[in-house]
Amino acid sequence: MKSIFRTSVLLAVLVVMALPLSGLSVRAQGGGGMDCTSMAVIGISADDCALMQAATTPENLAKLSSFVADYSLAVKVTGTGKNDADISVTGSGPISLDPAALQKGDQAALLSSLKVQQSVVVKGSAAGKPQDMTAELRVVDGKVYWMSDTAPSNGKWFFNDLSKSASSSSMMGMMGASNPATQMTSNPEMVSAVMDLLKIPGFVTSSSADNAGEKAVTIKLDFGAMMASKDLPAILKKIMKAAPTGATPMDDATIDKNVAQFTQMGTPFLKDAKLTITEYFGTDDKLFHGLDMHVDYKLDKSMAAAFMNTAGTDDLLAVVDLKFHISKIGEEVSVEAVPDATDFSSMMSTGTDMATPVATAAQ
User: What is the Cα 314 distance to its own chain's centre?
Assistant: First the structure.
């Protein structure tokens, strides 16, 4: 399973690299809008930019206080030897929250307002073992309730106190001014450097389409084109100089060394990596309606064998499809607690067998 973990990490790195780039093209301005000049760099039209601009105003973001989410995730990884995976996840259900608390990073207010009820189905196999599972998740009154038909739940309901679980989490610290993407977009030198990166021929392209009251705006990233650009070292150096480095900034020699290492080591890993992100916006309500993400990845068999620590003879291939769409925006959400759910944290602290739940209940 370690090889699958390594592959997952690598795919996650691609997504993490891409999201700040797309975020820079829709960076917030004083009125909650976005910079359409930056959007034009990657080929997004003025009309499409205006729609995306409207969807990101504080007023319209606040309207996303409740909705029904329908989502799916399909992951297929081959070329790992015995650790290939082919898994799909589908889910659906209502969600409501306080958008103001989310934007402010007010963890207590957000958790107290959060209501979630989701049904999830997992199908497929990994490392030759079936991964089939059905589960239900509820969040209400600051508690998360969960149940699945597999271990460790085995059909029984458990709950965790979100306020206790989140107290040691840095999730909310990643929002607002402390968000790395926010820090990037507020730095003019960094914005200029990343704009240069987006201008690399073939790296980022965009398109849009209208369908049944929705506008689909698609951004495609070809990391192979980025790695092949002769301008990449200079752009990376510019980015590293603009990035915060703490008390001791790096000198040019150190930056040059790091850039050389990245281009040398990154090329074989990224030359066959492609990412497509499509966002959906309502043309009438001017609201965000959903997101699709598709990853195509290939790693040469010689590099795959070294990376996966195996004697594999095939290229490593990975395909990831994520779809997240919302409907029934603004409708009231009602979620019921599970009265006889067992306190999972109490069981963990006492070492109680999950097959024989203790008497502690949610209410």
Answer: 29
CA 11, 17, 21 angle in degrees (round to 5)?
A: 140
CA–centroid distance for 304 within its chain: 25
Pairing of strands 158-161, 342-343: parallel
Q: Tokens 């900034």 correspond to what residue? A: 249
Containing 107, the helix (H) or strand (E) segment is helix 107-113
Q: Which two tokens stand for residue 253?
A: 């020699």
Burial class of residue 334, CB neighbours in 10 A (0-12, 13-18, 19+): exposed
Mean pLDDT value across residues 55-77: 92
Strand partners, 123: 88
DSSP annotation of 79 reads: S
pLDDT, tens digit (0-9, with 9 covering 90-100), for 16-57: 444 444 444 444 333 344 578 778 888 999 999 999 989 988
Average pLDDT value for the chain? 81
3-state secondary structure of 163: helix
β-strand pairing of 66-78 with 214-222: unpaired
Give me 258's structure tokens. 């790091």
For 199-209, what is each residue's pLDDT tens digit? Answer: 999 999 999 99
The SS3 assignment for 260 reads helix
Choice among 77-81, 120-124, 169-173, 250-254 with the minimum mean pLDDT: 169-173
**CA distance linking residue 36 with residue 40, whole number of Å:** 6
In angstroms, the Cα distances linking 296 to 2, 6, 52, 317 are 21, 16, 26, 8
Token couple for 271: 């030359």
The DSSP letter of residue 34 is: B
pTM of the model: 0.82
* Residue 165 to residue 143: CA distance in whole angstroms: 10
Helix (H) or strand (E) holding 8: helix 2-25
Cβ–Cβ < 8 Å for 102, 175: yes
Strand partners, 275: 221, 295
